[in-house]
Amino acid sequence: MFIQIFGVGGTLDKVYFDALSEYQIGEPMAAELLEQGRVGFEYAVESLLKKDSLELTDEDRQLIHRRVAECPAERILITHGTDTMTVTAAALADIPDKIIVLTGAMQPARFRDSDAPFNLGLAVGALNCCQPGVWIAMSGQVFAADGVRKNRVAGRFEAG
């Protein structure tokens, strides 16, 4: 199995320098997390963007769409900010014959109590089990991209 991973930024890749500083989006954390997990499959990681998802534009989503559509891999994992993950997922819905899974984190992967490793593992599992289409792997569940929403109050994704 081969997985192409596209990083577009979001909390999963955020770097905080101290409690008083602004954050920056760093390099994708996916490779480091997969190495820590001692995975047994091949993958490639490419950073497409380094943005908070609230800053993504239609042009950014067109770039993501183009790169996913042109990618020869069948299995695509996108690490993405949680606030507009469903918007990007909807923009990818017309891409045929690929399993596309978006995931992210509520806390940066560099934090000890981050949900990033769990969500990334869930996304890999979804790439192994789901049919072609667009999926969101968050909060311990895999959702069809058109049937999920972020519950900001509860800090999780849920059907809806």
Radius of gyration of CA atoms, rounded to a whole number: 14 Å
Number of E-type strands: 10
Helix/strand-derived category reads alpha/beta
CATH class: Alpha Beta
Strand order of the largest sheet: 4-1-5-6-7-8
Helix content: 25-40%
Query: Uncertain regions: pLDDT < 50 for 5+ in a row?
Result: none
Categorize the overall geometry: globular
Number of H- or I-type helical stretches:
4
Summed over residues and divided by their number, the pLDDT gives a mean of 90
The largest sheet is:
6 strands, mixed
Order of helices and strands: EEEHEHEHEHEEEE
Query: Which strand-content bin applies to the residues?
Result: 25-35%
Provide the CATH superfamily: L-asparaginase, N-terminal domain
* CATH topology description: Rossmann fold
Report what the structure shows.
The chain is of the alpha/beta class and 160 residues long. The chain has a single domain (2-159), classed as L-asparaginase, N-terminal domain (Rossmann fold), CATH 3.40.50.1170. It is 26% helix and 32% strand. It is built from four helices and ten strands, in the order βββαβαβαβαββββ. It has a six-stranded mixed β-sheet, with helices on both faces. A two-stranded antiparallel sheet has the order 2-3. It is globular and about 45 Å long. The model has no long low-confidence stretch (mean pLDDT 90).
